[in-house]
């Protein structure tokens, strides 16, 4: 009985799910590596985990890019004060 990539497949799903829930684009590539390892070992469920990780990697990257674009937009339009007050607003 050889290694059919079952543990790699489980890790691929775990990293993909945690990355999808937290929108952490660093976890999906790790899940993708484990899915590819499971696929190379001949596990039939590896392709679904691979597609899942790719889809959520693209979604996470889109969210991060959109976030930074909104921050740049807010700073460039003066929505963020350049010199914040030194004292709190409420006393």
Q: Mind explaining what this structure looks like?
A:
- It is a single chain.
- With 91 residues, the chain is mostly helical.
- It has one domain (6-76).
- It has helices at residues 6-22, 27-40, 46-76.
- It starts with 5 loop residues before the first helix and ends in a 15-residue tail after the last helix.
- The model has no long low-confidence stretch (mean pLDDT 88).
Keyword list:
91 residues, mainly alpha, 3 helices, elongated
Give a short summary of the structure:
The protein has 3 helices and no strands. It has 91 residues and is mainly alpha-helical.
Topology overview:
Blueprint: H1 6-22, H2 27-40, H3 46-76
Helix pairs in contact: 1-2, 1-3, 2-3
Mean pLDDT across residues: 88
Cα-based radius of gyration, to the nearest Å? 21 Å
Cα separation of the termini = 72 Å
The proportion of residues in beta strands is under 5%
Please summarize the sheet with the most strands: none
Structural class: mainly alpha
User: Helicity level, as a percent range?
Assistant: 55-70%
**Count of the separate structural domains:** 1
Query: What series of H and E elements makes up the topology?
Result: HHH
How many E-type strands? 0
Query: What's the shape?
Result: elongated
Low-confidence stretches: none
Number of helices: 3
């Amino acid at each position: 009985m050889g290694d059919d990539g079952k543990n790699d497949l489980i890790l691929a799903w775990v990293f993909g799910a945690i990355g999808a829930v937290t929108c952490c684009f660093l976890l999906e590539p790790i899940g993708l590596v484990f899915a590819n390892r499971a696929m190379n070992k001949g596990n039939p469920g590896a392709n679904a985990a691979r597609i899942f990780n790719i889809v959520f990697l693209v979604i996470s990257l889109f969210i991060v890019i959109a976030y930074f674009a909104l921050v740049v937009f807010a700073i460039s339009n003066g929505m963020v004060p350049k010199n914040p007050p030194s004292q709190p607003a409420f006393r």
